């Protein structure tokens, strides 16, 4: 049995004895909107387990351009590769939807990781799920139209919020997609015309999930199916799994 009353899927899936290896060193942190958790090249000092909210992982280029490669919410964690040895962060992590999380110093996480097969199993599943995002996302960025990619990213964030009103600006979307702000304005206009975006006011975008899923490329559905498959033998599955496209109501 896992640990009840915890929002993060990886922590909630741990047997109590294994969670107790982490618990004394865990501290609660607030994930503030647009906060930079770590920058590309920084030393990884903490492992962070979000309980709510969403964090995008960004590649920063020398000319100032950025593009998102993955997103992490309550289903995963940040900084877990520190369990395999010290290394600088390969990506910049930015909060895109505020929430709360628990963090633990990387050295203490490494000690618990070394002692607990259950923690190792959970982190291995998480790393495999992240590889799905990185591999599929890289192909998507190269091959799929930017409007379909924007719809995919809006769905990824919505999956982690369980809310159809997303706290996003056009500037944020331009950073995530690696395109100009004027391009995002045009894409928003197109998605509003199709009904996939119901309204946009300063800092908030209201979506119709089902219509947005129809506008997105296949990658959102494929990534979610593959990630659910990875966690299918793990108690975290019920927390990770999102409702299938077409289920429930569009609102």
Structure description:
This protein has 251 residues and is an alpha+beta fold. The protein has 2 domains: 1-116, Jelly Rolls, CATH 2.60.120.10; 144-233, Winged helix-like DNA-binding domain superfamily/Winged helix DNA-binding domain (Arc Repressor Mutant, subunit A, Orthogonal Bundle), CATH 1.10.10. The protein is built from 10 helices and 10 strands. The strands form 3 sheets. It has a 4-stranded antiparallel sheet with strand order 2-6-4-5. It has a 3-stranded antiparallel sheet with strand order 1-7-3. The chain has a 3-stranded antiparallel sheet with strand order 8-10-9. It is globular and about 55 Å long. The two termini are 34 Å apart.
Q: What tags apply to this protein structure?
A:
Jelly Rolls, 10 strands, alpha+beta, 251 residues, globular, 3-stranded antiparallel beta sheet, 4-stranded antiparallel beta sheet, Arc Repressor Mutant, subunit A, 10 helices, 2 domains
Helix-strand layout with pairing:
Blueprint: H1 9-12, H2 16-22, E1 27-31, E2 36-38, E3 46-50, E4 54-60, E5 66-72, E6 92-97, E7 99-105, H3 106-115, H4 117-143, H5 146-161, E8 165-166, H6 170-177, H7 181-194, E9 197-201, E10 204-207, H8 209-215, H9 219-230, H10 237-240
Antiparallel strand pairs: 1-7, 2-6, 3-7, 4-5, 4-6, 8-10, 9-10
The low-confidence runs, each spanning 5 or more residues with pLDDT under 50, are 241-251
Q: Specify the CATH homologous superfamily of the largest domain.
A: Jelly Rolls
Sequence of secondary-structure elements: HHEEEEEEEHHHEHHEEHHH
Beta content: 15-25%
Determine and state the CATH class of the largest domain. Mainly Beta
- Largest sheet data: 4 strands, antiparallel
Number of helices: 10
The backbone outline, from C-alpha atoms, is: globular
Could you name the CATH topology of the largest domain?
Answer: Jelly Rolls
Distance between the termini: 34 Å
CATH architecture of the largest domain: Sandwich
Instruction: Report the strand count.
Output: 10
Walk across the major sheet and give the strand order. 2-6-4-5
Fraction of residues in helices?
Answer: 40-55%
Report mean pLDDT, rounded to a whole number: 89
Radius of gyration (Å): 18 Å
